[in-house]
Specification:
This protein is α+β, with helices and mostly antiparallel strands and 212 residues long. The chain has helices spanning 42-52, 98-101, 106-111, 204-211; strands at residues 33-35, 58-59, 66-67, 70-77, 95-96, 117-125, 130-134, 145-153, 158-162, 165-167, 174-177, 183-187, 193-201. The strands form two sheets. Strands 1, 2, 4, 5, 6, 8, 11 and 13 form an eight-stranded antiparallel β-sheet that branches. Strands 3-7-12-9-10 form a five-stranded antiparallel β-sheet, with no helix packed on it. The radius of gyration is 16 Å and the shape is globular. The protein starts with 32 loop residues before the first strand and ends with a helix.
Length: 212
Amino acid sequence: MSWEMKCPDVFLGLACQFIPPFPWRRDLVIPSVLRLPLNFAPNRLQADLAHLQSQQWLPHFNTRIYDGDWSGLPLRAVPGSVIPMYSDPQAETWEDTPLLQSCDYFPEVLATFQCPLLAVRLLRLGAGSVIKEHRDPMLSPEHGEVRIHVVVATNPDVECRIDGVSYRWAAGECWYGNFTLPHSFTNRGTTERLHIVLDCKLNDWLRGLLEA
């Protein structure tokens, strides 16, 4: 299991604080992957993407689990963090970055989610690049935090695999995945794959969305 995705302090020689499970109704069965009933305008997503393309994209800090270009821009981050791309499980304060505030549509997308937002990143997987199979701990309804992907730009040769099942997501779609399960992303196409990746605290609104 790769814990660096959620807790890079492990390989910095620091202790990662254990986060206790979130109270969850055990009689509810949430699928490992769900296309959520939220849809966004691909042309408006890509207009904001074009606005940000000239920024300095940050290589993902977990270099062990990918080949090629996996990089991003922080849209919500811990103020003053030395690793603004890191979703710090011990952080209590998150705020929109100037990059998000400079966009027209991305703030509207984030406002759709009526739940507390932690780290939000625009993540790019370059053509020919691979995110190797790994697990992200404590990203499940049982732990009170889930990860959601909004697809900004993609191509037919981008594959997501979660728990051995292959998925191909389209621009404008919104997907939940249980990323505590083994998962990987592969871009065999000739164009970039771009997702807004949101780490969300579970509340009644989000629970209702997953249960529906």
